[in-house]
């Protein structure tokens, strides 16, 4: 990894805990923050850890943007998977470098990008999206974060069939995943894992019935809860406000 910022790099410009900015470096572009503007040409060639001064004399530390920083700057047009749920999916579906993963629906491409990040460099994410406008916008998002080379996106209703076979995992975040249980089973390799995200218990129950009927084993419905705390010594306690509910996850194996 280069020690110096290059054109096209994603950087985090850090002022303080409440003010940090993720931006893709383009020469000539002026980036506006609440602490003044930065000509991004001045960021090129900086060593990571150095500062850049805004037009009103405020210093911002130039750091590398991580995956979540980058994804946070994407245009969202659907509900997206929260990192806590994505992390559970990646680990429980045994997704790693080289994995071949089928996913639906693509939506904003947030989860697609996370899956692509973990299957790199030799794996692939085959993602299905029924809506053409979402499919096209997600392609733009994936291109923007540099993860498109690891993704094959399709503007297709996954209920009409999965084109791939012997895949390692199938990941579903769509309104009626129970209608894909059998297709998923057929597409998976022996030992492959299905991971489903649904927002309500009513949907979860329908998924359990469908995966059982399709022959899946080791059916595990879970809920992942993360509670943020105030990082203040002497005041260390849970944050007053936060996300109370995202959804339920279910994993099942083809054994
Ligand atoms: C909640 S969004 C997915 C968000 C995505 N996981 C993310 O993190 O950005 C659900 C998506 O599923 C798509 N969808 C619904 N039914 C589908 C189907 N049968 N085949 C493919 N995509 C479908 C919807 O159009 C929508 O974009």
From TrEMBL:
EC number of this enzyme: 2.1.1.-
Any Pfam family hit: GCD14
Keywords: Methyltransferase, S-adenosyl-L-methionine, Transferase, tRNA processing
One MF annotation (Gene Ontology) recorded for this entry: tRNA (adenine(58)-N1)-methyltransferase activity
Domain tRNA (adenine(58)-N(1))-methyltransferase catalytic subunit TRM61 C-terminal: 74-230
Gene Ontology BP annotations: tRNA methylation
Domain of life: Archaea
GO annotations of cellular component type: tRNA (m1A) methyltransferase complex
Residues where S-adenosyl-L-methionine binds: 129, 157, 173
Gene3D superfamilies for the chain: 3.10.330.20, Vaccinia Virus protein VP39 (3.40.50.150)
Keyword Methyltransferase belongs to the record: yes
Enzyme class: transferase
Keyword tRNA processing: yes
Protein name (record): tRNA (Adenine-57, 58-N(1)-) methyltransferase
Source organism: Thermofilum pendens (strain DSM 2475 / Hrk 5)
Organismal lineage: Archaea, Thermoproteota, Thermoprotei, Thermofilales, Thermofilaceae
């Amino acid at each position: 990894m280069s020690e110096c910022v290059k054109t096209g790099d994603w950087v985090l410009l850090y002022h303080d805990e409440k003010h940090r900015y993720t931006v893709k470096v383009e020469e000539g572009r002026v980036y506006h923050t609440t602490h003044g503007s930065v000509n991004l040409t001045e960021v090129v060639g900086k060593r990571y850890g150095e500062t850049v001064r805004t037009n009103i004399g405020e210093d911002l530390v130039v750091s590398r943007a991580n995956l979540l920083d980058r994804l946070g700057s994407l245009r969202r047009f659907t509900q997206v998977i929260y990192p806590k749920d994505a992390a559970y999916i990646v680990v429980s579906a045994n997704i790693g470098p080289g994995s071949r993963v089928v996913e639906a629906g693509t939506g904003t491409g947030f989860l697609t990008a996370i899956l692509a990040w973990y299957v790199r460099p030799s794996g692939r994410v085959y993602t299905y999206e029924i809506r053409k406008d979402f499919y096209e916008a997600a392609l733009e998002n994936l291109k923007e974060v540099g993860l498109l080379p690891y993704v094959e996106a399709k503007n297709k209703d996954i209920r009409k069939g999965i084109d791939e076979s012997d895949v390692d995992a199938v990941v579903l975040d769509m309104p009626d995943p129970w209608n894909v249980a059998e297709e998923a089973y057929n597409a998976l390799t022996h030992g492959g894992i299905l991971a489903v995200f649904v927002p309500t218990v009513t949907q979860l129950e329908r998924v359990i019935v469908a995966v059982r009927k399709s022959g899946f084993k080791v059916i595990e419905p879970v809920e992942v809860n993360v509670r943020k705390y105030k990082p203040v010594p002497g005041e260390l306690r849970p944050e007053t406000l936060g996300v109370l509910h995202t959804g339920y996850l279910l994993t099942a194996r083809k054994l």
